[in-house]
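Sample entry copied in:
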Amino acid sequence: MSYSLLRIAREALRGGSGWTRAWRDPQPKPQYDAIVVGGGGHGLATGYYLAKEHSLTNVAVLEKGWIGSGNAGRNTTIIRSNYLLPGNEPFYEHSMKLWEGLEQDLNFNTMVSQRGVLNLFHSDAARDAAARRGNAMRLHGVDAELLDTAGVRAMLPLLAFDAARFPIKGGLLQRRGGTARHDAVVWGYARAADRRGVDIVQNCEVTGIRVANGQVQGVETTRGFISAAKVGLACAGHSSRVAAMAGLRLPIESHVLQAFVSEGVKPMLDTVVTFGAGHFYISQSDKGGLVFGGDIDGYNSYAQRGNMPLVEDVAEACVALLPQTSRLRVLRSWGGIMDMSMDGSPIIDRTPVGGLYLNAGWCYGGFKATPASGWCFAHTIARDQAHALNAAMRLDRFATGAVIDEKGAGAQPNLH
C-alpha cells in the first residue's frame, strides 16, 4: 500500500484495521539471479536499486539477524558530502542528492533533516585546510561556506569560544548536510525493495560461499544452499570473515566505534557540529537528546560495545566544546563494527572470483553513503563493471598505489 495523508486519515477513522505488513517475510527460494549478503542499509539499498534501476527482481537480500541489526542502527545519523578528493567528492554528492529525494522515492518518512553540518577549526593552519576543502567542494558544484568566529557565534552562541581551551576561529559549513533517522532508512528501503519483488530473508546466516572453476555458484546458509550467478557482499565489519569463505583476504580491519545519547534537554543545537581539535561530532535529536561520538577504540574487535578510555576521550571533547554538558547524564551507548580500510575510503568493486562483488571498507562514512553505495553497487553487480562514481574505489588500489587517502590515516591504531 502507498502511504499518504489521505490514507492516514482513513485508517484513523477505522482504528488502523487496514494497515498491512510493511514487507513480506518469505522463505528463501533455491535459486536467484543475484544475492546480496547483508541486510543493513547498504544491502537493502542495493536490492532496491537492482530492481528499480536494472529491472532485476529475482533478487534476495540475506541477513543473519533482523534487518538493521548491525551498523545501520548503531550510528550517529549524519549525512553530508563535504569531502576533498576527486575519488570521493562526486560519489558523496550523488548520495546527498539521493538523500534529498529519498522520502518521495521510497514513499516513506526517513526523517531527512538538512540542518547543516559545521566543521570547526581552531588555528590558522586548520583554516587553510578548511578553505582548501571548501574550494574543492565548490569546484565539484557542492555548497560550502567558510565562516569566521563571528559567523559561528551567530549560529551557535552556546559553544565555548574565547575562554576555551581551543578557541574557535571559524568553521566550514555545508548547509545541505544534516541527519536522517537510521532505522527509518532501513525500513524504507526494505519496504520499497519488497514492493518491487526483492526477497528480504531474515535469520539466514551465510556459512559458506560455493566457488567452482573461479566462478561463484551460490551461498551456503543456515537455511540451506541458495544458488546464484552473482553474489554481492555488503557485510560491513564482518566483510573479512565472509570474504574469507571465498578464499579472499581483504585490506581492511574491524574495529569498534562507540556512540552515545544524553538525557533530553531544551533545544541548544540546531545543526551538526564537529570539533576541530579532536575527533568529535555532535547533534541534537528531535527528542532533545544529544547524539555524539568520536574515534574508534583502536583495537581489532567484533564486539558491539566499547571501553572506558574512549568514553573518557569523547566526554573530554564534548565538555571542551560545550562546557555546560558536563552536568548531563548519558542515557545509553552502543558500538558498531567498523570495516576500516587502509586509506580511509571505501571499496565497491568486483573481486578476483567471477560473479562475486564487494562493498566494504566504509570506515566512518557508511551511513551517509547509503543511497549512493546501493546505487553504485547495484550498477556494478548488474553490469559487471564499475560506475564512474565508484571507479576509483577499486579493490586493487592498495597493490597499485592508487589510494584515496582522504584523511591520511588508515585503520592501524598507530596511524589513526
